[in-house]
Design a protein that fits this description.
The protein is an alpha+beta fold. It is built from 3 helices and 9 strands, in the order H-E-E-E-E-E-H-E-E-E-H-E. The strands form 2 sheets. Strands 1, 2, 3, 4, 6, 7 and 8 form a 7-stranded mixed β-sheet that branches.
Length: about 190
Amino acid sequence: MARIFRFDPKRRRGKKQGKSGGWGKAAWQMLPFLLLVALATIWIIYDMARDAAPADAPVVAARAGPGDTESALFGECSGPVRVTCVVDGDTFWYRGDKIRIADIDTPEIGSPQCPREAEMGRRASVRLQALLNQGPFTLAPNPDGRDQDVYGRKLRNVTRGGQSLGAILVSEGLSDVWPSTIDWCG
């Protein structure tokens, strides 16, 4: 004899459900997952804040001077469209112009020669982003007279209150003066 199954929306299976409409058990089963997501989010935020700048880095590099008229909120560059963002420790986009800081050279992140260079390059990038976001700055012409490098980037010195932001990166060990003599893998 064949058994006929019919859908009956009023029929309830298993234990009697309470006023919660059956969601109570599901919510309790999801609790470990939700706690894991919350902990992961807290860890990511903590990790980003910890890496924002080296522990011994000054909170403010220099106070803005009267000539410091440039400012923007810099993020990390990603994707093909770049307007105002940091590429690496010595290159950034500002209002659609790609700018290479003329007085420094930082470790490579695009094609590093070793893991140490990649890590130092990442730290230099994060620090440059923090320095640029600390307040108004000046884009000064390159002292040697060259306006662009071979890649078409505008060569500029970046200063705040007369202090070179590149020199700050050098003093923190995240960069070298241009042209660099440091072997970041050695």
